[in-house]
Amino acid sequence: MTSRPTAGARAVVIRGARIVDGTGGPSVHGSLLLDRGRIAAIGASAEADAPADALIIDADGLVASPGFIDMHAHSDLAVLRDHEHLAKVSQGVTTEVLGQDGLSYAPTDDRTMSIVRQQIAGWNGQPDDVDFAWRTVGEYLDRVDRGAALNVAYLVPQGSVRMLVVGTENRAATADEIARMQELVAAGLREGAVGMSSGLTYVPGMFADTEELVALCRTVAEHGGFYAPHQRSYGKGALEAYAEMIDISRRSGCALHLTHATMNFGVNAGRAAELVALIDAAIANGVDITLDTYPYLPGSTTLSALLPSWAAVGGPDATIERLGDDDVRARIRYELEVLGTDGCHGVVTDWATIEISGVANPELAGFVGRTVADIAAEDAGHAWSGDPTALFFALLEADRLATGILQHVGDEANVRTMMAHPAHTGGSDGILIGAKPHPRAWGTFPRYLGHYVREEGVLGLEDAVAHLTSRPAARLGLSDRGVLRVGAVADLVLFDPAAIADRATFAEPRQQAAGIPWVFVNGAAVIADGRRTDAVPGRSIRRSPA
Fold first, then answer.
1. Cα–Cα dist 63/515, whole Å
2. Distance separating alpha carbons of residues 208 and 511, to the nearest angstrom
3. Per-residue pLDDT, 1
């Protein structure tokens, strides 16, 4: 698949850079010419062939790299409403893959759009400056094409598709319903989606059994796409959940991209080698597998995601009504505190690891940045004082399920093991809303190159750049992005390898990265001398029909 750059950007000569071309090969010093949205020349001819009015950038001491591709992003609304989109372009991201975790805003109808908007408000908010007038994947991508800060690829969200056809009930789909879901997935892929995502700990995607997923993945494979599942567990039973995804890929013939692929929670500390062995054995047997991770320990989701799946049947309004029943609360409490809910990956909830990152109700703002355990212990005089599970229920009701959380459940050894895998790519999984969102939304890519490359040496520079550029481009089927070569689209980053660093922290998460003075999208500078320009050259990247 080839791409269409934005025409009309001013020609640029990047003089004397250390060129890391994205292939993983050794770097070279030289110059590049960017013209008409593409790389027009590399080496001595770059300056000789430049138009007289070309912008000259002295890149001495800087690395020229392909733009970074965020394989797991939650900017589905941000790309439409925030044309600055500084969180991503300032860290060198030039393409994002949206439609993640099986829930997004296309395809939908009027009924399901209303449900999805409420269900994933903790990921994207409930903005009043978006009209939500689209319904199909193609119409959503058309909206992106009105102008965005960066490029967008989209995954058909399996949970949204199931909601359209089956609803939010916990039951097996009929043969006719599976056929209709296949039609919707195929339509989304024909309209330009690059694959299909699932959220198998989220309602209603989690109610799909293996056979249903195999059938849908056969459709994805027929159209040349890939499957990107958020699997059924990243805690207790994680390896079994990974094995199911690999089995689906093998049986359907569909390429597999394991999203935020790690082993979380205490039950999996130090066990990433077991996951690597499972992946490597499948690859050796011909299964096409890639994966992405973020370079942090905590995860991020919504507070309502911790509920058992049966409590979320019927959609957000039904869930809130259900929470008013004392018997229901007692059942949920038992699963949270004793059994471990499927929403919390089969692990008993440790409220000391659950930090509130954002709320929709301004009356709850004082809870942000604190764990559920601390709030329950420190705030006296409430019905939930001393009882974190009671506080959990109170927050769900008061914030109408829109509360965002951080889960402090990661393991450093696992993170390092997974990022070193040859099938690895980078994905921020960044949620952009909330008072204190996860810093990965602003810091993922500079953290890879600063902390884990320069400071820790987990990866070499050229190898790390390949992880973040050409490897994800190959998974997306892009033949002219993710590498620096003549004729490639001019998605490009200039960074200082001695200074690049994530400055976003858990206390102050919205901090622009250091050491990235220039970022180009389709040949147009979106970051110039470290500052955001007014350019919106990003467009949808659509998979050509297979």
1. 10
2. 39
3. 56
Locate the DSSP E strands across 341-387.
354-358
Encoded tokens for 132: 């939500």
- The two structure tokens encoding residue 532: 């955001």
Roughly what angle, to the nearest 10 degrees, separates helices 210-222 and 158-165? 110
Q: Is the peptide bond before 439 cis (omega within 30 degrees of 0)?
A: no
Contacts of residue 488, Cβ cutoff 8 Å, sequence gap at least 6 = 38, 39, 66, 480, 481
- CA neighbor of 226 nearest in space, from 491, 466, 430, 1: 1
SS3 72: coil
Instruction: Of 545, 539, 546, give the one whose Cα is nearest residue 79.
Output: 539
CA distance 543 to 546: 8
- Mention every residue, 6+ apart, whose C-beta is less than 8 A from residue 169: 204, 207, 313, 314
Provide the 3-class DSSP secondary structure of residue 525: strand
The residues, any chain, with a CB within 8 Å of residue 478's CB and separated by 6 or more, are 1, 2, 3, 541
Helix (H) or strand (E) holding 301: strand 299-302
Task: Find the DSSP H helices in 366-448.
Answer: 372-378, 388-398, 412-419, 440-447
* pLDDT tens-place string over residues 33-84: 999 999 999 999 999 999 999 999 999 999 999 999 999 999 999 999 999 9
C-alpha 384/C-alpha 379 separation (Å) is: 9
Inter-helix orientation angle 175-190/210-222, to 10° = 30
Residue with tokens 């990866």, as numbered in its chain = 459
Q: What is the 3-state secondary structure (H, E, C) of 114-157?
A: HHHHHHCHHHHCCCCCCCCCCCCHHHHHHHHCCCECCEEEEEEE
3-class DSSP assignment, residue 40: strand
Rg for the chain, CA atoms, rounded: 23
Whole-prediction pTM value? 0.95
* Closest listed residue to residue 255, CA positions, set 281, 236, 231, 228: 228
* Joined tokens for residue 277: 């062995």
In the block, tokens 């009882």 appear at 387
Beta strands, E only, 380-423:
404-407
User: Quick check: helix, strand or coil at residue 424?
Assistant: strand
Q: Are 452 and 420 in contact (CB under 8 A)?
A: no
Helices (H), 323-371: 326-334
The confidence score (pLDDT) of residue 546 equals 57
